[in-house]
Amino acid sequence: MSSTPVLIPVEQYLSTTYHPDCDYIDGEIEERSMGETPHSGLQSFFGWYFRNHQDDWRVDVFTEQRVQTSEHRYRVPDVCLVSHDDPYHRIIRTPPLPCIEILSSDDTLATIQPRITDYAAMGVTTCWVIDPWLHAAYAAGPDGILHPITTTLTVPQTPVAVEVAAIFAELDRLERRSART
Question: 156, 125 in Cβ contact below 8 A?
Answer without folding.
Answer: yes
